[in-house]
Design a protein that fits this description.
One of its GO terms (molecular function) is serine-type carboxypeptidase activity. With about 525 residues, this protein is α/β, with parallel strands linked by helices. It has helices at about 5-20, 25-30, 35-50, 125-135, 180-195, 215-225, 250-265, 270-285, 285-295, 315-330, 370-375, 410-420, 435-445, 470-475, 510-515, 515-525, and strands at about 85-90, 95-105, 115-120, 135-140, 145-150, 160, 205-210, 235-240, 425-430, 445-450, 450, 460-465, 490-495, 500-505.
């Protein structure tokens, strides 16, 4: 299907990527690019980009004016489109508890739908998704300055990023949740108030997120279904990336050895370490468990695993791999393990499990000028991740996060699939934080629409024909035009009974950041714009 990106976005992205001219290289000269030709090309892009700007404010009213974002520090004004942010209380007469949001209407043709995004943690801010994954403006690890994201989800849909649950980021209030039902109920309060303020009704609602939001998304979607109100809660689909939908610890312990064996070219472990891992993988029963239960169709319901890493630390293979990875590569990043040194600075201050940014570069959303611009409380010290945000038990619950709710595969995720027949679960093949085979084990232990797991082996390729839009101008200006053509086979897809599975090649944990073209296709499918990936 033809890419649904407005001319406006393409022109602006061209401005950003082309205006920072590369040197006039020998390759460019050999390919016939003259300095004057490059200068003329940049001038045309500047003229076109400025001409394409239009002040369109679909949701601007007296009620929404106080949330309107006029500008953002260090973000060129030409990048700005209609945007709103701030805190909406759960109870409009009591501002002590609420959720902070960013709302960006689509830059394309108006659509009557909202796609909600949650980051995970638990305790991590969805402003990460806004600034580094699927927002219109991208300022990711190692970037000197922000740029327009040509693969932004805002190109397709109205986007709502929410700092969730209460206590995360700028969202005010003391955490009181003991399970997933508690914050989901609070989200319903917030979302009712949001729709009233922005005069929204009869919209399709899509709920998306990544990582621990693999728990948030199904429970919030389930709460939306409970409203039985198509006017304000018309749940139409859900998407989760690298999600915690089953047992995180068990899935990673079972799946980590094959991951290391397949990817040791980037991890660099020595032969004796690999031999030790292989022996423990067999001795602890993980190899046999994979053989028995990563089967299509499933070989019955999986027996529960009770991991006791204190009593038997040798079987905690994932932690062994994680701890030793830093010795080989001090810049090891569990979310994108193919990265090597130097350690990349992060505008949000958290590029890996290490809090780090270059001296003089504070976390963007903790700056006073940024807080003022986005209507955030000035006295809140913003951190990308903080917690705890659940208080259910003393480090207990299925994932040892004080969150006592059952894993989503047991009830709420099947209900969402059956209600919408439009749910996508995806894992990045390089992700070492939540492993692909761990996610597949969870799916093969879930019953939905009358059957257990996938009945057939996923093997349909995902072919990405969308050309590079991020760096194509740089390639052209250096005489490499066309070298950055479409990617080709970038994953595997499989659809059964309302559930789409996608494994994304060359991607770590944050798929919209690491493989934005694949992520764009995922969203197109979720919204019903395409029938397959």
């Amino acid at each position: 299907m033809k890419l649904n990106i407005s001319n406006k976005v393409l022109l602006i992205s061209s401005l950003l990527l082309g205006i920072t001219s590369a040197g006039y290289s020998d390759v460019a000269r050999r390919r016939g690019f003259t300095p004057q030709a490059l200068e003329d090309l940049q001038a045309r892009r500047l003229h076109d980009a400025v001409s394409a700007q239009a002040d369109q404010r679909r949701y601007y009213t007296n009620d929404t004016a106080k949330y309107f974002v006029e500008s953002l520090p260090d973000i060129p004004q030409s990048y700005m489109t209609e945007m709103y942010s701030g805190i909406i209380p759960l109870n409009m007469s009591d501002d002590s508890r609420g959720l902070f949001f960013v709302f960006q209407p689509t830059v394309g043709d108006p659509v009557d739908e909202i796609t909600i995004w949650f980051n995970g943690g638990p305790g991590c801010s969805s402003l990460e998704g806004f600034l580094q994954e699927n927002g219109r403006i991208q300022w990711a690890w190692g970037q000197y300055s922000p740029q327009i994201n040509p693969y932004s989800w805002v190109n397709l849909t109205n986007m709502l990023w929410v700092e969730y649950p209460v206590g995360v980021g700028f969202s005010p209030g003391t955490p009181t949740a003991t399970n997933e039902e508690d914050p989901a109920a609070e989200f319903i309060q917030f979302f009712k108030n949001f729709q009233t303020i922005f005069n929204i009704s009869n919209y399709k609602i899509y709920v998306t997120g990544e990582s621990y939001a693999g728990r948030y998304v199904p429970y919030v979607a389930n709460a939306i279904l409970d409203q039985n109100d198509k006017t304000h809660f018309n749940l139409s689909g859900a998407l989760v990336y690298d999600p915690c939908i089953g047992s995180f610890a068990a899935g990673n312990a079972i799946a980590v050895y094959p991951y290391v064996e397949q990817n040791n070219n980037i991890l660099g472990f020595n032969e004796s370490f690999l031999t030790t891992l292989a022996d423990r993988d067999k001795q602890c029963g993980w190899a046999q468990y994979r053989q028995d239960y990563i089967q299509f169709p499933p070989n019955g319901t999986q027996p529960p695993l009770y991991l006791n890493n204190t009593a038997n630390p040798d079987c905690d293979l994932w932690t062994t791999v994680y701890d030793n990875a830093y010795g080989v590569n001090p810049c090891f990043n569990v979310y994108e393990p193919n990265l090597q040194c130097p350690l990349l600075s992060d505008p949000l201050g958290y590029p890996s499990d290490i809090v780090y940014s270059y001296p003089g570069l504070p976390p963007y959303f903790n700056r006073t000028d940024v807080k003022k611009a986005i209507h955030a409380p000035l006295d809140t010290e913003w951190q990308l991740c903080k917690g705890p945000v659940f208080i259910g038990t003393n480090g207990g619950g299925p994932e040892n996060e004080n969150d006592t709710s059952p894993d989503p595969i047991q009830r709420v995720l099947p209900r969402v699939i059956e209600a919408t027949n439009r749910v996508l679960v995806s894992n990045g093949a390089l992700d070492l934080d939540l492993l692909t085979n761990g996610t597949m084990l969870a799916i093969q232990n879930m019953t939905w629409n009358g059957q257990l797991g996938f009945q057939s082996t996923p093997n349909t390729p995902i072919v990405i024909k969308l050309p590079d839009l991020m760096y194509q101008d740089v390639f052209e200006e250096n005489g490499f035009g066309g070298f950055d053509a479409y990617q080709g086979i970038m994953g595997v897809q499989h659809f059964e009974r309302g559930l789409m599975w996608a494994e994304t090649y060359l991607s770590g944990h944050m798929q919209p950041q690491f493989q934005p073209r694949s992520s764009y296709r995922h969203l197109q499918w979720l919204l019903g714009r395409i029938d397959s990936l």
